[in-house]
Amino acid sequence: MESERERGYALVLVLFMILLLTILGTAVVSSTLGGATRAETRENDVQSLHLAEKTLNEAASFLVTKYNGREDIAPDELSQLMQAGIVQLKRLTTSTDLPGASGKITDITTQQESVGDQTSYKLNLTAEAVVNGVTRRLTQQITIGAYPDFLNYAFGSENDVIINGAAYGRGNIYAGHEFLIDNTAKYIYNNDPNKKDTKYPYFDGNIYVQNMDSIKVQDKINGQYQPYSRTNLTLQQILGVDNGKIQLRDQKKFISINVSESFVDKAQEATNIVDRDSIKAAVDYGLAHSGESGRFNNLAAVLKNGSGVTVTSGPPGKPTLPTDLDDKAAMDAYDTALKEYEAYFVQFNSLSNTVLYNGDLKLDGLDYKSLIFTDSAKKDNHKWLIVNGDLTISNYSSDPLVVKANILVTGNVFISDSVQVDSTIFTLGSTTIEDAQIKGIQTNGERKQLILISKGPVLVNKVDSFKDYGQYDPTQSDSNILDAFFYTDEDAELYGVGSIFWLRGGFFSKGDLTINAVLGKASPGDADIIFDARPQSALAKEDSRFIINYNYDFFKNQYEGLPRVKKLSVIVGKKQLLSSNGT
Q1: Which residues are within 8 A (CB) of 573 and not within 5 positions of it... i.e. 6 or more apart?
Q2: The whole model's pTM is what?
Q3: What integer pLDDT is reported at residue 115 of this predicted model?
Q4: Degrees to nearest 5, angle at CA 332 with 330 and 337
């Protein structure tokens, strides 16, 4: 009996083991099949991701090949180039050997890079890849710019930036070669060179250099510059910034401007002359014959044939009051001539067409009380004043001289006294700013400014020399702050030693830029400048006599006058994976 019961137990145990093994076998088979399926799905997932990435890489390569480094692009040309590029991108498909796979650009959106910047675009590209039913989507942002880089910086140079003393910069700085620092300001007083020990400069913003070793400090013993990293000084001590504010930017990627080509562009735009080559040839001839009288007369002869161009060589002669006041005929003739004379100047208060002025033009605030183009003429219809000669803006009136005009000058530019501006000026000559009070016109609470682009050197001389205005306040609108941005193709040397050099705008040079600055008060002495009695170490950055406070509104306010750039830049951003719902 016991044996039968035992045999029954054994049978049940055997059946249970068979069932268990069957279940385990089924699970193993199921797991194996599922693993194979998951492996295949995972492989499709990886392959689709790689295919989407390849699609974006090919799109980025297409844009870099098409745009990066393309030379001599006028800002208004970029929109047309962009549209043509987008059409080609939408046709882009990525080749692959994978069966049942495809990759393409499914969406392209564009946006302005920043407020008011209408010459730089961000392309947001979306790539979609499908491999055996598995879909992956990636997005990438690519920026294409045609605006000149110099307008992005408070000050800088495509070559060396040399700062001697306690300059204060509010905004980004760029040095295309070396960034040379010293805490001793150099200056000339009564024709004698001299020096003043002060603080190192201080900056609120990023500093763009070629490499860390290009930041150099002058050795007080041997007078040579050496990389700051080989000294005991820190970035905070010599520049007022930490390491995170130092950015590397290759000079080869810097978007230069072409002053003479931009001048040609604006002249053609202002006159609607179809034959651009004739304008360029006349400009090139004038530049090649420096110092020769009438060297730009060929240019004037070409431009006068433009559409709607008003040509003038100055006012008619001012009539002389007759000696016999009872002579009716003589008095009538005098009154008629006087009205014609006064009417000539009145027209400059509301210009609507391009004006070609042959000869040197002197805006004095007396006869020429203002130079104003209508809003539609200046912004929408691209009308300019073209001066075939020198331009002098010297206000002899007690009222501010208003200049609301974009101006092309073949000669030199001289600005002094009180001027209110909303203007872009190109000059093929040199520029001198002497004791000038350049204030931006305020419209609806918004302050305009001057952009002055000079092929020749820019000299800023005796701006409020030896006057004391206390500490700098960026909110103030005192006359000692210039609302301007200056550019020169040459070297530039600026001083905030005896003079106050406070700029709400910027200063950039293609050649070396040298800045000398001290802190506090300064007054004239017999043999030397008498500096602030307080120790320089006790003074703050706001006490600097050289301060540039970058103005971000230039792109927006002076867009119609922005210059041609030497080449486009293409900046490729990071790729991001989109989820199934597109986020």
Answers
A1: 140, 141, 142, 143
A2: 0.77
A3: 32
A4: 95
